[in-house]
UniProtKB/TrEMBL annotation:
Nucleus recorded as keyword: no
GO terms classed as biological process: Gram-negative-bacterium-type cell outer membrane assembly; protein insertion into membrane
Domain Outer membrane protein assembly factor BamE: 29-102
Positions of transmembrane segments: none
GO molecular function: protein-macromolecule adaptor activity
One Pfam short name: BamE
Organism: Sphingomonas kaistensis
UniProt protein name: Outer membrane protein assembly factor BamE (Lipoprotein component of BamABCDE complex)
Lineage: Bacteria, Pseudomonadati, Pseudomonadota, Alphaproteobacteria, Sphingomonadales
């Protein structure tokens, strides 16, 4: 009888722990070292870079002449926040004519760790209570002279 009870408890424990398995995940661009080394300043242009590496992960927000290829490997266990194992960002800059002017590579050392400030965002001005926030707009909708109102 003890063996049967032990087997049942061991099975329940094994099922419970199976949900806590860790896993690795690779996201973004799959970086091929030889192909990324083949992009040369002064030789390549946007068309040749796209043929060699493919479309970029994203382009610069303020400058279309910057292309970024981002590759990231993470590891996580159960329900914890994923931990970055490796990251590579390949940044290729072009001149206005579309020729490569710079190829830069950065790693996970450039990842910024941002800690939130408490549970609320500090603001300037008067602090309102829950009821002031909830009932504060009663009577202002549709009144004249206020933004969004039905005034002249």
């Amino acid at each position: 009888m003890n063996n049967k009870r032990f087997v049942i408890l061991a099975s329940i424990a094994a099922l419970g722990l199976s949900g806590c398995a860790g896993y690795r995940e690779k996201r973004g661009f799959i970086l091929d070292e030889q192909l990324s080394q083949a992009v040369q300043v002064g030789t390549d242009n946007k068309t040749s870079v796209e043929r060699t590496l493919g479309r970029p992960t994203f382009t610069g927000q303020f400058n279309d002449n910057e292309w970024y290829y981002v590759s990231r490997s993470t590891s996580t266990f159960a329900f914890r926040t994923p931990r970055v194992i490796d990251q590579t960002v390949l940044r290729i800059r072009f001149d206005p004519a579309g020729n490569v002017t710079a190829v830069e590579r950065t790693g996970k050392d450039k990842i910024a760790s941002i800690d939130p400030y408490g549970r609320t965002t500090p603001t300037l001005g008067r602090r309102k209570s829950f009821f002031e926030e909830f009932f504060g707009n009663i009577g202002t909708v549709g009144s004249g002279g206020l933004p969004g109102g039905g005034g002249q």
